[in-house]
Design goal:
Layout lengths: L6 E7 L2 E6 L4 E3 L5 E6 L31 H8 L15 E9 L2 E8 L5 H6 L3 E8 L1 H15 L7 H7 L7 H16 L9 E2 L5 E2 L1 H4 L9 E3 L7 E10 L2 E6 L2 E6 L8 E3 L9 E3 L12
Parallel strand pairs: 10-13
Antiparallel strand pairs: 1-2, 2-3, 4-11, 4-14, 5-6, 5-7, 7-8, 7-9, 10-15, 11-12, 12-13
């Protein structure tokens, strides 16, 4: 019986995306690479624990969960986190940024300066610009200012991001236009915290990094993994946690967060024997991939 591996997620670096496995091993992902794996027969999806610790009760979690944590571990994981506003005394400087995912999809957010653009790659931001840098609470107040004054959200669902990736403007200047316009409105606002140093407009474009040029329209997305199921296809593009795989039934998106918590084994072929949710936008295709 093949050794089962456990995936701890997709990571982005200057070298591109890579799947990381428990124990530290990495599988670099390049365009055209075949991605194929099976889920162990009779297996269950276990909670991945929190903050480097195993789940104390070994809980089983739903296949559709992108967090792969039980309620108790999810609460622990969010404790003392920037997202939960429990790290007000964090001494690190933070960047405030504007990120663009497609027409009409701009969000504001913050990330520790030491992380560079990693957070933007993880979110699948097609392009972004820094707005300013300063202490955590000043960055958070600026984020709230933009949300209230300009009605810019701090979250955009992944389903909405996936829906527009095959229809992005081809020209980088067109992709940067919305974010540049919003940057101008943002820096013109009064009441910016004095401790936040404003950054000049420099739009960074990730379309090439993600391999989105000419990417076909996806026909669906994997909704969950199941015991005994298999996923296989050729990697066409990757953005955030998503892999765009060319399969025998068309281009399908796999959110790699669904892989965590399962025992995975090598597999062959370019077929999917896991549930796939068909996209409504994909006209003229069959109701199911299998």
């Amino acid at each position: 019986m093949a050794q089962a591996w456990r995936c701890s997620g997709l990571r982005w670096s200057a070298d591109g995306p890579a799947l990381v496995w428990d124990g530290g091993r990495r599988s670099a992902l390049t365009w055209g690479k075949r991605v194929a794996f099976g889920v162990t027969e009779g297996g269950v999806r276990g909670c991945v624990g929190a903050r480097g610790h195993a789940c104390p009760v070994g809980a089983v979690v739903p296949g559709r969960s992108t967090g792969a944590r039980c309620e108790a571990c999810a609460r622990l994981d969010r404790a003392h986190s920037v997202a939960a506003d429990t790290l007000a005394d964090d001494p690190r400087p933070y960047h405030v940024y504007l990120a663009w995912f497609g027409p009409g999809m701009v969000k504001v957010g913050i990330t520790a300066r030491e992380r560079g653009s990693a957070r933007l790659l993880e979110q699948g931001a097609v392009c972004f610009t820094w707005l300013g840098v300063g202490p955590l609470m000043a960055a958070r107040r600026t984020e709230e200012l933009l949300r209230a004054a300009l009605r810019v959200p701090d979250r955009i669902p992944y389903a909405e991001k996936r829906a527009v990736r095959a229809a992005l403007p081809e020209d980088a200047a067109d992709r940067a236009r919305e974010i540049a316009e919003l940057y101008g409105r943002a820096v013109a606002l009064p009441a910016w915290p004095e401790s936040l140093v404003r950054e000049p407009l420099r739009v960074v474009d990730h379309a090439g990094v993600f391999g989105l040029a000419g990417v076909p329209v996806a026909v669906g997305e994997v909704s969950e993994l199941v015991a005994g199921g298999a996923v296989g296809g050729e990697l066409v593009a990757a953005a955030g946690p998503d892999l765009h795989l060319a399969t025998g039934g068309g281009l399908v998106v796999l959110d790699t967060r669904l892989m965590t918590g399962w025992g995975l084994v090598p597999a062959a072929g370019d077929e999917l024997t896991v549930p796939v949710r068909q996209f409504r936008e994909a006209a003229g295709v069959q109701d199911g991939l299998f």
